[in-house]
Design goal:
6-stranded mixed β-sheet; binds fe (ii) ion
Amino acid sequence: MASGCREYTVSILGDTHFDASPTELYHGKWVPRGPKDLRDRKYEFARNSDMWADRLPRLIAAAAKTRRDDTAFLLHVGDLIQGDCTDYGIQLKMLRDAQAACIRGFGDLPFVVACGNHDIRGGGERAVDDFVRPLARRMTGRTIDGASFSFWHGPDAFVIVDFMRPDAALINRMLDETEGARYTFFVLHSPIAASDTWGPYWFLLGKPCDTEARRALFARLVARNAIVLCGHLHVTQIRRWRRDGGELVEFCSNSVWRPQEDKPSELATTPAQFGEYARAHPTPMHEDHDGCLQTRTQEEILALQDEYRPGLVEYRKYRAAGHYLLRVSDGGVAVDFYACDSLSPTETFKLKFMV
Ligand SMILES: [Fe+2]
């Protein structure tokens, strides 16, 4: 185990969907899969360009101002870019342009990225791997294949997982290699368990064929008292499970700052509300997200959610975008949430016991 300080902070950005106009700049070679794809992507391209013309640079400038002398690195939990480039060189340029935009104001602080679905969308697998490799090498001292890797910071383990190309054997190996950590931070773009949103089945190892592996991994992370840091849902959310003497906490960050989200609003505040969204939306959710998901009926979704109801002791979800500061010490772990471009914390989420 590497030595190092026991008290430090980590700056966190959630989904940022970097993009710019004109559309041809990054999407000139993109070909829609059909009318719905064209409609959906046009909405996202416009949303992102509008966001990056003003609000996101302000949010990132605020994040840079709230970093501290003890901030170890800047962590991005994925969907760094919009993707949809359909060209290796353009996708790699988009990733690097996004990195430059996100680290502005952070000096030479290391940048750690968990690969999101948009980061590889549009044929970007090779571009993501080539983008992540030098960033991962800086943290691990090794050359890695793919976009999953682990490293130590002081007594703590950071396990970074590429959820779009999940490899249960590799994930378990990384957990084996980091046994004995004071805190285990399990970082990935997607949630670790079924969510209660428009895509409840879209989480790590969420395909039916991976059922056994995802149940085993969830149990292992509970036993490990892991802290999951994720994004993807475009909400600020905390979930905590206590089962069999272990405790797993998951925190979801979001930096997609839409105009209607200038002020945070509550969506759920108690575990009993988990499943409300799915029950209120009886239409089967069958979208083929990025070609990696399978049709689920509402009954299947509710059954999937039921697996994650036992032991769910905390569930709070907010329509809220901003930047975050993870604070780590022997006394515990907390996240300060700064709404939009705030320079003072809007709310503090206690992830592990704070003295
Ligand atoms: Fe996203």
